[in-house]
Write a structure and sequence with these properties.
The chain is α+β, with helices and mostly antiparallel strands and 405 residues long. It has three domains: 164 residues, Reverse transcriptase/Diguanylate cyclase domain (Alpha-Beta Plaits); 56 residues, DNA polymerase, domain 1 (Orthogonal Bundle), CATH 1.10.150.20; 161 residues, DNA polymerase, Y-family, little finger domain (Dna Ligase, domain 1), CATH 3.30.1490. The protein contains 14 helices and twelve strands. The chain is globular and about 60 Å long.
Length: 405
Amino acid sequence: MDRVVMYIDMDAYFASVEQASRPYLRGKPVAVVGSGKRTVIVASSYEAKRFGIKTGMTKGEAIRKLPSLVFVEGRNNKYVDTCVRIHEILLRYTPEVEICSIDEFFADLTGSLLLFPSPADVAVAVKREIGEQFGITCSVGIAPNKLVAKIAGELGKPDGLVAVEKDDVERFMEGLPVESIPGIGRKMGAALKALGITLCRELRDFPVSVLRRRFGIWGDYLSFMARGIDPFRAQDPGGLPKSIGHSMTFEKNIGDRMMIRARLLELSEMVARRLRKEKVVAKGFSLTLRYPDFTTFTKRITLPFYAPGGRMIYETVTALLDSVRLKDAVRLLGVSAFNVRRFAANPSLFGGLDREERLWRAVDDVNDAFGECSLHPATTLLCARRHWVISPAYRPHKSYPYRRQ
């Protein structure tokens, strides 16, 4: 039986959830932000997008573009809970569901098709259930693999449904701009354009040897993807995250290194918590700094071993900080982990978990039950109370405890 994958992408997710739960916002241009004065836009409604309101804009930039823009403080628990409930809907149609991010899902329908008339019928039913239960819309792509399903879903936005049959994949891909392929951003697109490549059919027909010389192993991947072949399926069957990170913009610029270190400890523990939730470890870490003039730079390091927890992450990024001569106070700090792999727990001599691992598992359980940062390192008490909005790339665990009865 041919494989059938369904991609589900929620339309303007954070903003749509706010509009659905607050009827007075419907039809208005809405931007979801944090509670701080210096917060940036995390998501915007389609009414706002039409006026050029984009993720990452400051409130000042957005107001200058659209004075009537309505700002709404983000509600993390609401977005996570809605994501988990959507996951529960999808599980009624197939057990093979992957939460790709807080607003994206992949569902493998291959083993469930005998129970339903067609994949399109499943997609229509899913869209209807999500609309009735949450008052929001989603776009769906159906194809023989995740790559083409995602491209199809993006082309159908908003509130669309695009299905691509196995025999139509190459014809579907050939007329698309190369930027339609996930992973091809502005820089890669410019590099391909310099080679005379703007469409997928041109990328498909371009000599692979030249692509390989220019882009390394990515040259082979690009050639495969231009044909609608997913080169990553065998390498990443479990949806392993490529990186996990957190950043925060401060109410006031921070110049005191002790305060910067306290913030880095907070960010390191947030990243470590995400790593534990995903059951992965990392050995690559990066520190991002942004100055008041918006100059931003990132320093990276790859360790010879996989870091076991937040303390090691903190020590690594503070070492990166110590190698930097700050030219000014900082406006933003970010910590990210990359080069990840699955974590295999090694039992201790007595067959139990070591003390630190038991401690952090208990801390995670408390924070799952009572909210982020209910328990946190004492050093972070130096930091003022803050309210941040999770990134749309955040991937809740499928058994997120917020849904406990």
